[in-house]
């Protein structure tokens, strides 16, 4: 039984480390429905976005990859915007009892003027598995900037995990956490009811990839979303519903070989 459990963990590690996807760091459910537009949509990636929010909030997101419970990611994000310095905390956990990746991330952002915002984040990622007595870890930083030349247009640039420092030797042997990536993108609110988004990304595993998404506003409460990601080709759909101080979001992504992934999120603003 012990040998079977060890074999299962090694197979799990193989799936995780050979995949181009970072299962620990995922965008929130709204951004997932737009197929992962992170640079202008997700504070979990671009720290400068936190300065654009007006209210404090706490959000919970659960993402289930390909319908496999062991590939589930749970995230909690608290945001506290301020005219002086906006701050936030993000905690994420991926995996199951015998193999679990964890992330603790601190975010800070500042609105420099009516056009520019700047932000930075520091995160500590670590792995807990029954295979190792140690807990391999990685300390890294993110830097993001946004630019809004006109009211309905927002552009952003994001650098993830650069620089990064391995805290245990095993991290250099097995790539538990995705290395650096650079992402640029923009969003445009067209005729007040339709949001259009485009993203271009470069990372160590792929030279260039990209995504595009749209969000349609059906009144004040309901929003419908769709998107598509390249390399691999992954379409997505999503929806959001706002009721008073609560917002609920759902997302569905489809991989032609591996199947369907789903996300659900709940945000409380105060």
Keywords, separated by commas or semicolons:
single chain; 270 residues; mainly beta; 54% strand
Task: Kindly describe this structure.
The protein has about 270 residues and is mainly beta. It is about 10% helix and about 55% strand. It has helices at about 1-20, 30-35, 170-175, and strands spanning about 55-65, 70-80, 85-95, 100-110, 115-130, 135-145, 155-160, 165, 180-190, 195-205, 210-220, 220-230, 235-245, 245-255, 260-270. A hairpin with a 3-residue loop joins strand 11 and strand 12 (about 220-230). The termini are far apart. The model has no long low-confidence stretch (mean pLDDT about 85).
Shape: globular
Structural class: mainly beta
Following the backbone from N to C, one meets helices and strands in this order, namely: HHEEEEEEEEHEEEEEEE
Helix content: under 10%
Distance between the termini: 50 Å
Q: Report on the biggest sheet.
A: 14 strands, antiparallel, barrel
Uncertain spans? none
Strand content: over 45%
The spatial strand order of the largest sheet comes to 1-2-3-4-5-6-7-9-10-11-12-13-14-15
> What integer is the average pLDDT?
87
